[in-house]
Structure formats: structure tokens, C-alpha cells
Amino acid sequence: MTVKDHYGLEYSGANPAALELFQAALDAYHRYAGAPFEQAKAVLKQNPGFVMAHVLKAYMTAIGSNPAIRGMAAAAVSAARDLPMNAREAGHVAAAEAMLAGEIRRAARILEDVAIAWPHDVLALQVGQTMDFLLGDSRMLRDRIGRARARWTPDMPGYHAVLGLHAFGLEETALYDRAEAAGREACALEPRNNWARHAVAHVLEMQDRRAEGVRFMRDDAAAWTPESFFLVHNWWHTALFHLGLDDIDAVLELYDGPVFGEPSSLAFDMVDASALLWRLRLRGVDVGGRWLALADAWSQHRLGHYAFEDVHAVMALVGAGRDADAEAAVAEIARAVEGAGDNAAFSRDVGLPVAEAMLAHGRGRHGRAVELLRDVRNRAGRFGGSHAQRDLLDLTLIDAARRAGETALHEALVAERRAAMPRAA
């Protein structure tokens, strides 16, 4: 059976009741708040032939290095593969297969074509932008959404989601005024839109509006935090605002609370925890035993799957003083260079030299860290992440230059930073 949604998109293997529940799952996924995975499972329990419910499960579990979670994605793709489906759905299944194969660029291109043909397919836009994020492709973060936005009007359901996606793309291409306007409009339309709030937080971070950032995140927390599965990252942004204001107590309180007070097994959550503790380490803050729990959490993940995550695992091992484990992790990243999929290039171009730099920094070989980071920082976008996340490389370079006694370079880097972000942390 085929039914259509309010955009006119057709869904194979569905009935009206199943489509209504699936739309609720999509709405939650677009907000980054709710229980879309459980809702997709509920759909499939009654409608095992619902192709896009399998696809949504795959998209939610195919990214990251946790083997058990990726196993769920493989099962979802396998279940969808032989079902009757239309051309749009076939594109989604092919994209999910590419993601599982580590072919991020191919998945991004497939979803680009799906969104060009069906610009009201918000799932294609959202997952496609996620691929752009993994690739560090700032232009496509913006333009993938900009193409489709022209086909949307404010009265259409889901318009807030498109606005939020576009806001992040605009921010990552330094169109800050437009990004903030789109993000704030999306938040006004849907206060639980965690991605739109995140986009505005990025603007405030890049413009060094720290006190305003704290107010934006904390004063409206009751609106965006309920059932958020983007909670860690948005509180991480809040912690960065506090760090920029030299409020270390607030940073540690957030780390011990929503950031990593209850250790997470999700790689993206652990990335945020590693990045926050490393920033504190660069400031000479004693974080006690916090590194140890984080290093233990990273030990449950297979390295060599995604270089951006791998680098943050190395940070945690270095911070915990586990030099032998950190060295073994760097060796695993080196092996990934010879592997399959896009991660081989991510690791070769950026991941491996950055991981080596973090290890060198931890061992006091600051001149070596400087050499490695100076060579890589202008191409760091090639292994994904946002400008705010990759800023950690510049912070580490500044610290390494100071510790290495490279006074002229250190002064130049500090001047460079002050010119761009006078109070940046």
C-alpha cells in the first residue's frame, strides 16, 4: 500500500495510521527532541514493510563507532533492501548503504539528488547536511538547504526544520546575521528545535558574544531541554560561553551535570566531553579524575572508523595519562589510512597528524606539536566538525608554541586570535 504525506511524498508499505505515527517520529527527529527511534520501531511492529521507517532507524544508528549501534543500522538496511519502494525511497536506502560502507561522499551526493528531485523531503535535507558536517563541507552545509528553502513557505508544516538547517549552513559560511535571523525564527516557530538553537549558539560563539550566549541557552532552557537528544552538545556550547567568561566553576558544573555527569556511550557526546576537558587542560585547570572515566568510555569504541572521533579519543587517553594506550590509538589511526571508505582520506589528511600532535603535546614535545598543527590547521575542515569544534586545534597550537619557547610565533597567533575574537577561549 502507498500513502502520501502533507507534502505529497509517497510512502511504500504504509497506511494512514502508520504514516501519522511515522510523521511524529520525523517531527521529533527534526527537532532533535522526542523519541523518534522508538516511534519508528512502533511503526515497524505493525507495518514491517514500511520502507522509510527502516531507513529512519538506519540513519539514526549508522553514524558513529559503536559496533552494537551500527549493527542496528545494518539490520535496518537489510530489512529495507528487498521491499517494494519508489525512486525516492530507493535513494534513501542507497544513501544508508553508503553510510554503512563508510562512503560519506557518496551518501551526500545521493541525498543531494533526492533533495533536488523532492525538495520537501526534510529527512533527505537533514541527513544530507549531516554528511556535509562529517565531510567538513561548509558550502554544501549551506547550499544544500538554500536550494530547497526557496520551495518552502512559512505556513508549511516543518518549515521551522528547514530554517534551522539553513541557519547552521549560513553560520558555517560566516553569514552570521542571516544565520542568527533564521535560527531565531525557527526557535520562535518551534521552541524545541534543538538544531536551530545550536545554530544560534554557533553564531554567538563565533562573534564572541559570550554573556549573551549564556542567557540565550539558560534563560530558555525549559523550552529546549525536555526529551532532547542533543542535550549534551547544546550544554557543551553553554560551557564554552562560560569558559570564555573565565567562569571555570560553571564549566565544571556543566561537565559534571548534563555534559558527562552520567557517562555516555555515544561517540558524539564523548567528543564534546573530550573537547571540553582538553580546553580546561590547556588553561592549566586540574580536572581531577574526570579524564579517567572518559578514557574508559572511549575504550569501548573501535577506532579507525571516523578520524574526527578518533582524535578526541586520543585526547582522552593523553589526558588520563595512558600514554601506551594513546600511542596504540595513534597506530590504529595510521592503519586506517590504508583502509577503505572516506575515512582513509580523513585520517591521512588531518586525523593522523592531529592525533600525533595531541600525543606530542601530552609528552611535552611541544615543538613537534607546533610543527604538526601548523601544517594541518588550514585544511582541518577535511575531517569534519564545525568551526567551533576545530577551534581546539588553534588553541592547542597557541599553547604548544608558548611552551616550546617560540615566542614570535606565539605572539603572532595570539594577535591573530584577538583580531578575530577579542575574548575567545
Describe the structure.
- The chain is mostly helical and 425 residues long.
- The chain has a domain at 230-425: Alpha Horseshoe (Serine Threonine Protein Phosphatase 5, Tetratricopeptide repeat).
- It is built from 23 helices and 2 strands.
- Helix 10 packs antiparallel against helix 11 (194-206).
- The protein is globular, with a radius of gyration of 21 Å.
- The mean pLDDT is 95.
Averaging pLDDT over every residue, what do you get? Answer: 95
Shape: globular
The CATH architecture classification of one domain is Alpha Horseshoe
Please give the count of helices.
23
Q: Element order, helices and strands?
A: EEHHHHHHHHHHHHHHHHHHHHHHH
Uncertain runs: none
By oligomeric state, this entry counts as single chain
- Report the portion of residues in β strands: under 5%
Query: Distance between termini?
Result: 55 Å
Strand order of the largest sheet: 1-2
Tell me, what is the CATH class of one domain?
A: Mainly Alpha
Cα Rg: 21 Å
State the helicity in percent bands. Answer: over 70%
- Helical/strand content category: mainly alpha
**Largest sheet, if any?**
2 strands, antiparallel
> The CATH topology of one domain is what?
Serine Threonine Protein Phosphatase 5, Tetratricopeptide repeat
Instruction: Compute the number of strand runs.
Output: 2
Question: What's the SSE blueprint?
Answer:
Layout: E1 2-4, E2 10-12, H1 16-31, H2 36-46, H3 51-61, H4 67-81, H5 87-100, H6 104-117, H7 122-135, H8 138-149, H9 159-172, H10 176-189, H11 194-206, H12 210-218, H13 221-224, H14 231-244, H15 248-259, H16 267-282, H17 290-298, H18 307-319, H19 323-336, H20 343-362, H21 366-376, H22 387-403, H23 407-420
Antiparallel strand pairs: 1-2
